[in-house]
């Protein structure tokens, strides 16, 4: 009986994450909005505070933050296998699209984007706005935390650098320590895991061993697929600031080596932004261009594997850390900055890339009304907005 329940849980994780992988357009911040709607609001697998804590944790880790949040939620729901299945469902649609249909998607340039794709960009505005409203109510309930959120957004607007997000989070932590250390803060509900600190420590050790060891092995065993693993594991281990930061790092690694031309690189990057799911699946495109389907699969796994090791390594220690009085005060400030990050991202890139004129803005308002006031399921709202975009734009 328990085994059957476990299988049903894993199947549910895969179906839900697959649907998110098919419909989650708009980049990592939009992904967090979709996750909040599905995992927190609809299915109640975790509450707003635990969700915000996971976002804060993953913002501190290198790699794709939205994918790491999805992996973490899968692990909380279904253990290690649940994390793998959650990642697989969310990532697979993008991987398949970039491997099999990259040549078709590449044929669209900036002026020839189909209306339904533009509609999917527009609905991301409504989804992120709704997530911002819900998380703001929970995480910024007073004037101090509202001020932290707005200050964070302003800093990001004034200093538009990739690393500024990490700086803002650190500032939020310092403000939280100063202002909330003496206040009685509500303890976070403990997260339940099927693996413990021993596996977590082993995972962190393996992360660093591979980071150091793969380049050494590749130097003595110059195998092409091992070369792919070397490049993509290293990039996936050190990149901060979201998928767009991957661009200069990967360009230096794969264009200069002759694996892919500069023109193909930029074209593929555009294709990666036109499909749903994580932007890190750009690795699938590059790997396929360089070494066929097997190269695409190897590059994808190597790109995301560091995220698995880091999440498995940190989660077992998270309960003790997040309920420590000093850390909880810092985390209170960090969670307020998360709202600020979401506010900044609502404008750029979500709003600026989708809202070109009054027609697009009207469609975004209509999508928001469907989502918030009419209470339609997010999947239905996404589908309807894509159809509206196809016929109206």
UniProtKB/TrEMBL annotation:
<protein>
    <submittedName>
        <fullName>Chromate efflux transporter</fullName>
    </submittedName>
</protein>
<feature type="transmembrane region" description="Helical">
    <location>
        <begin position="353"/>
        <end position="374"/>
    </location>
</feature>
<feature type="transmembrane region" description="Helical">
    <location>
        <begin position="201"/>
        <end position="221"/>
    </location>
</feature>
<feature type="transmembrane region" description="Helical">
    <location>
        <begin position="12"/>
        <end position="35"/>
    </location>
</feature>
<keyword id="KW-0812">Transmembrane</keyword>
<dbReference type="Pfam" id="PF02417">
    <property type="entry name" value="Chromate_transp"/>
</dbReference>
<dbReference type="InterPro" id="IPR003370">
    <property type="entry name" value="Chromate_transpt"/>
</dbReference>
<feature type="transmembrane region" description="Helical">
    <location>
        <begin position="84"/>
        <end position="104"/>
    </location>
</feature>
<comment type="similarity">
    <text>Belongs to the chromate ion transporter (CHR) (TC 2.A.51) family.</text>
</comment>
<keyword id="KW-1003">Cell membrane</keyword>
<feature type="transmembrane region" description="Helical">
    <location>
        <begin position="116"/>
        <end position="136"/>
    </location>
</feature>
<keyword id="KW-1133">Transmembrane helix</keyword>
<dbReference type="GO" id="GO:0005886">
    <property type="term" value="C:plasma membrane"/>
</dbReference>
<feature type="transmembrane region" description="Helical">
    <location>
        <begin position="325"/>
        <end position="347"/>
    </location>
</feature>
<keyword id="KW-0472">Membrane</keyword>
<dbReference type="GO" id="GO:0015109">
    <property type="term" value="F:chromate transmembrane transporter activity"/>
</dbReference>
<dbReference type="InterPro" id="IPR014047">
    <property type="entry name" value="Chr_Tranpt_l_chain"/>
</dbReference>
<feature type="transmembrane region" description="Helical">
    <location>
        <begin position="148"/>
        <end position="180"/>
    </location>
</feature>
<feature type="transmembrane region" description="Helical">
    <location>
        <begin position="285"/>
        <end position="318"/>
    </location>
</feature>
């Amino acid at each position: 009986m328990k085994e059957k329940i476990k299988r049903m849980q894993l199947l549910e994780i895969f179906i839900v994450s697959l649907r998110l992988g098919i419909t989650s357009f708009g980049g990592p911040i939009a992904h967090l909005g979709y996750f909040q709607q599905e995992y927190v609001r609809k299915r109640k697998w975790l509450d707003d505070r635990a969700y915000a804590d996971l976002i804060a944790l993953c913002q501190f880790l290198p790699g794709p933050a939205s994918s790491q949040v999805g992996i973490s939620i899968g692990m909380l729901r279904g253990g290690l296998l649940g994390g793998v299945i959650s990642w697989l469902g969310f990532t697979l649609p993008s991987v398949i699209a970039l491997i099999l249909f990259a040549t078709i998607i590449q044929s669209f340039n900036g002026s020839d984007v189909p209306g339904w794709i533009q509609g999917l960009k527009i609905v991301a505005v409504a989804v992120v706005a709704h997530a911002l409203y819900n998380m703001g109510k929970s995480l910024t309930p007073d004037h101090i935390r509202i001020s932290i959120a707005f200050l964070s957004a302003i800093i990001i607007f004034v200093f538009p650098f990739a690393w500024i997000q990490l700086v803002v989070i650190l500032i939020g932590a310092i403000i939280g320590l100063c202002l909330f250390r003496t206040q009685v803060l509500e303890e976070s509900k403990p997260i339940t895991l099927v693996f413990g600190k021993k596996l977590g420590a082993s995972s962190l050790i393996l992360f660093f061993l591979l980071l150091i060891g793969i380049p050494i092995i590749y130097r003595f065993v110059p195998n092409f697929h091992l070369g792919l693993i070397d490049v993509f594991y290293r990039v996936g281990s050190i990149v901060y600031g979201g998928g767009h930061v991957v661009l200069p790092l990967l360009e230096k690694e794969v264009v200069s080596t002759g694996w892919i031309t500069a023109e193909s690189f930029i074209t593929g990057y555009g294709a990666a932004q036109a499909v749903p799911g994580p932007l890190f699946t750009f690795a699938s495109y590059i790997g396929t261009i360089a070494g066929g389907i097997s190269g695409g699969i190897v590059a994808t796994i190597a790109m995301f594997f560091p995220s698995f090791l880091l999440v498995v390594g940190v989660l077992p220690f998270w309960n003790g850390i997040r309920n420590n009085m000093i850390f909880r005060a810092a985390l209170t400030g960090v969670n307020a900055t998360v709202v600020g990050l979401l506010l900044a991202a609502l404008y750029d890139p979500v709003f600026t890339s989708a809202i070109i004129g009054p027609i697009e803005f009207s469609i975004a308002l209509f999508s928001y009304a469907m989502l918030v006031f009419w209470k339609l399921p997010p999947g239905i709202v996404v589908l309807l907005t894509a159809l509206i975009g196809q016929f109206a734009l």
